[in-house]
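Entries read sequence, tokenised fold; example below:

***
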Amino acid sequence: MIGVKGGFIQLNHGKRAPLQRLSASDGVVFYSPRTSYPDGEPLQAFTAIGRVKTGEVYQVEMTSRFKPFRAEVKFLKAKEAPIRPLIDRLSFIKDKSHWGARFRFGHLNISEVDFALIAAAMGRDFQKDFAS
């Protein structure tokens, strides 16, 4: 939620490479396994959705030892959407019994159909908000 309030994303513990794969106007959606990292209560919901602004990657200094990379995102008002009711319809989750494994690497591309399904569950209209 810090990123939502600040209008930015930071992926894979601040690495540059995943952000460089994003382009201006790409849709992004965030899945949160817990309310906070690493020991928060289980949440298992999509919690934020938006569009990449310019696709430019920049670095910030949070501490002398942690200087993560970020990209600007225009987040949209949306409601949390629990993942469990969506699992059977999400094509990027191949193994429905071990669905959480798909999120282990922090960043993945999903189809427009899956994105639209998640957006609708979050109360957003894909055609209005994301279709180019």
